[in-house]
Amino acid sequence: MALSRKSLEQELSDTAHQVLGKLRSHQFFQSQWDTGAFIIFLVFLGVVLLLLLLVFIHCCCSGCCDRHSSRSQKKHSWGVDNLALEP
């Protein structure tokens, strides 16, 4: 059941007016649900930023830490090597 173009425009307009009304009245969180949703959004944003920071650190540190654990040094190999997986 797709919305028609006019009803979609009307819904977006109503949402924009509602958001602008909250901004004008300086009452961003009118209920506890609004506050909870904002806190959940901030936690999600924090986790995403933390993961991006960890990826950035891993990419920067992989050049300096890679020489200690290279694939060519296999002194303590256990089991059978699957040579089909080697590049």
From TrEMBL:
It is a single-pass membrane protein. It comes from the Eukaryota. It is found in: Membrane. The keyword Transmembrane applies. GO terms for cellular component: membrane. The chain crosses the membrane at residues 37-57. GO terms for biological process: lipid droplet formation; positive regulation of cell migration; regulation of actin cytoskeleton organization; regulation of cell cycle; regulation of cell population proliferation. Keywords: Membrane, Transmembrane, Transmembrane helix. Residues 67-87 are annotated as: Disordered. PANTHER family: CLCA DOMAIN-CONTAINING PROTEIN, SMALL INTEGRAL MEMBRANE PROTEIN 22. This is Small integral membrane protein 22. The gene is SMIM22.
